[in-house]
């Protein structure tokens, strides 16, 4: 179980390396959202996503071996690990599936990581990274199924708690569960945490129905960041009791959310980054009268031309 103390210690550990990201309040005249709504802009975090929080906490929690670090990722986790390794003076080798975008591969290379394309999806890239780590002795850093990583992601909730102290509900997108797991661990019992997933990546939705992590098929426009085949055991130990609901949104609704964020606010969000917002503006999430809602925009590594 991830405790408040775990998350507080993570916040202290990673403070020199990450940004406190801003929160903005939506103008009612621009958005038909029917209540106070706030966006937590983790898309403005270093490397363009929330991932450095967990990456730094993981790498600072134990000595890094001489062989460096290895990670498998659709992009954002790998970018965060490459950035953290660069800052900490370690070598990074990142395994990506073929669906990883050209932008994210370019970012990895620019951060000095060795990039290896392995397989067609995250599961295949992960298997290749694990085999390589066993061969070299490098530290294999899982994207979400690790307590230190989940605690690092939970530092988002510490910030949000201070920025919107009386928030009622937080909408969070889900991939492997580390992101929402950390947030839910902090807010459990005080604030409603609602999961949002693409219809083609229903990892948490299916796990909650089965009451245990299960394999699902993944695809669609957000698969590079949210397309994990199975929810992590570590985050699911939190999520099975701390999440109020797991909603599903379509690729079309995600694209619409990207477009609205860009046209109204000039916020560039990748598909996974706009997924939670899609639940709010599409009506997939139905708010109560007077409910104060925060939405975490978790990633911005996208070309605005792809959705403008």
Oligomer: single chain
Compute the number of strand runs: 10
Number of domains: 2
CATH topology (level 3) name of the largest domain = Rossmann fold
* Helix-strand pattern: HEEHEHEHEHEHHEHEHHHEHHE
Proportion in β-strands: 5-15%
Describe this structure as you would to a colleague.
This protein has 308 residues and is α/β, with parallel strands linked by helices. The chain has two domains: 4-50 and 148-306, Rossmann fold, CATH 3.40.50; 52-140, Rossmann fold (3-Layer(aba) Sandwich), CATH 3.40.50.1100. 43% of the residues lie in helices and 15% in strands. It contains 13 helices and ten strands. It has a six-stranded mixed β-sheet, sandwiched between helices. The chain has a four-stranded parallel β-sheet with strand order 5-4-3-6, with helices on both faces. The longest helix has 15 residues, at 122-136. It starts with a helix and ends in an 11-residue tail after the last strand.
Structure summary:
This protein has about 300 residues and is of the alpha/beta class. It is built from 13 helices and 10 strands.
Ordered list of secondary-structure elements with their pairings:
Elements: H1 4-14, E1 23-25, E2 37-41, H2 51-59, E3 69-72, H3 76-88, E4 92-96, H4 102-110, E5 114-117, H5 122-136, E6 139-140, H6 147-153, H7 155-163, E7 169-173, H8 178-187, E8 192-198, H9 203-210, H10 223-226, H11 233-242, E9 245-249, H12 251-265, H13 271-282, E10 293-297
Parallel strand pairs: 2-10, 3-4, 3-6, 4-5, 7-8, 7-10, 8-9
Antiparallel strand pairs: 1-2
